[in-house]
């Protein structure tokens, strides 16, 4: 439900609500949700949330598990350029 609330907050320019939604989503990231959350963050210009997704993947070394999720597989089909961005950004974090 929080994802739908984020979409509505973005649509109606409710920035405080959007920040609260991002914060909740950041706290609840896991292997199964990180790819779809990354796509949601990209679609709604949520830089804080995108950064949290990248950090989750890079710091937890969860990339192998993430690529096995349905969310990642769906994203690979619907927006391959977003997958490239995710992989490149994760690599930059790991090399920093």
Automatic annotation (TrEMBL):
Span of the signal peptide: none
Domain BPM/SPOP BACK: 33-87
GO process annotations (BP): protein ubiquitination
Listed Gene3D superfamilies: 1.25.40.420
Family (UniProt): Belongs to the Tdpoz family.
Protein name according to UniProt: BPM/SPOP BACK domain-containing protein
Species assigned in the record: Aegilops tauschii subsp. strangulata
Species classification: Eukaryota, Viridiplantae, Streptophyta, Embryophyta, Tracheophyta
